[in-house]
Amino acid sequence: MITLNTTTQVKKKKIRVGRGIGSGKGKTSGRGIKGQKSRSGVAIKSFEGGQMPLYRRLPKRGFNPIRKEKIAKINVDKIQYLLEKKILKENEKISLENLKNKKILNKSYKKIKVLGSGNINFKLDIEADFISKSAKEKIEKVGGTILIRKV
Questions:
Q1: Cα torsion 69, 109, 82, 151: sign
Q2: How far apart are CA 20 and CA 26, in angstroms?
Q3: HSE on the CB side for 29, CA within 13 Å?
Q4: Dihedral of the CA atoms 52, 55, 60, 62 (nearest 10)?
Q5: Over the stretch 19-41, which tens digit does the pLDDT of each residue have?
């Protein structure tokens, strides 16, 4: 039933379920006869009859980017330690490949970033993808050279 409002707007009358058989939505209120769905308090949105649901069959992805490149972070402090322990030599270039060969870094790393925590006393030749301002200042202060790789 459509009624006209005083401001000439058309309003459709809300269906009131369960108000007698003459309304068309009486007795069972449009829920059919018996069964789980006819009862109140039933929510079976993603239920698949006991089969493992789709949302549990798919792998978890979350907020981990699939193609995220692993970046190794190494502090100036750590480089100093490696030079003192003679694991790295003073005259050789410090790069990602070199650190992987010496087994200082894992093979899974694709890029390297040099960070500025600690102090350095050795003159270095560093090849990295990224470098912090403080690390750059410390290495250049000692007379070292920095080569930043462009990818």
A1: negative
A2: 4
A3: 9
A4: -160
A5: 998 888 999 998 999 988 888 88
Question: What's the rounded Cα separation, in Å, for the pair 75 and 110?
Answer: 17
Its pTM stands at 0.57
Residue with tokens 């079976």, as numbered in its chain: 44
CATH number of 71-148: 3.100.10.10
- Residue 14's alpha-carbon distances to 58, 117, 142, in angstroms, are 42, 69, 81
Q: Which amino acid is at 59?
A: P
Structure token digits, residue 54: 């789709």
The rounded Cα 139 to chain-centroid distance in angstroms is 33
Selection from 65, 61, 146 nearest residue 112 by Cα: 146
